[in-house]
Amino acid sequence: MTASTTRRTAAKSRIAAVGAIAVAGTMLLAACGDQTKNGSTNRSASAPLSGLLPKEIKDKGVIKVGSDIAYPPVEFKDKSGNTVGIDPDIAAAIGKQLGVTLRFQNGTFDTLITGLRSKRYDLAMSSMTDTKDRQQGIDSETKKKVGEGVDFVDYFTAGVSIYTRKGDDQGIRSWADLCGKKIAVQRGTVSHDLAKDESKKCTGGEKIAIETFDNDLEAQTRLRSGGVDAGSSDFPVAAYAVKTSGGGKDFQIVGEQVEAAPYGIAVAKGNDQLTKAVQAALEAIIKNGEYNKIISKWGVEAGAVTEAKVNGGS
Fold this sequence. Notes:
Order of helices and strands: HEEEHEHEHEEHEHEHEHH
Number of helices: 9
Radius of gyration: 19 Å
Structural class: alpha/beta
Low-confidence stretches: 3-44
């Protein structure tokens, strides 16, 4: 989910439209199995980068990953209750390189960084956009320092889209068209920030009525019921909702995506050894082709990265 710590550059930066999101691919890579239920070490003699991990994590054989697991197709539960999606598949491949299990733990999106600070999680991987404010621990609303910040290992690129009920776009083509209308968004995301920022620009007293929810699926339900005029989320998520909700009959994307920026795996400041280990593992799966297989499996090739950068967001 694109981050709420700073509104990224308002220039209409975009990425190419992502192809159709594959509904298939609900099994995690064999290295991890069901990551929410299986805490076994699942070590492998072929883990070439295990020596890069901090000793306490290597000894445990598990990396705890905080995630809001309600954001298909990036991370969600399948019909059997398993955690699946783009993020879990990439995490499983990283775990193979490091010889550990990346075990996903569910949490609300706006509490994941706090969970890193309290050591509830070792990593946060939840469609979280890498921004300077997050790196520096700055609150986007007050611009005040609220924490030590985090480091990011960037692994994907995505923009933000608006969607409406199918055949009922209310004349919405851009964020400026939302003045005087209602939008549903997940709390703590760039969609939330964009709506607040755009509302400040509205004239004639026609502000944007913003309804916020703990997760994106709740926001979709509100739009589906007709309680709001539009919804917004990261493009892969919006595209998946358009393709799958109501058999493709519920929603449509309007306008073009904006605010393209990298998703990052978040690590608490000071955990440099873990950050470097995750970066090396991601770089390894990019080079050996496993990363591209995962990205292709989910039909999101336009968001692929070619190198594992640390703190590449702006």
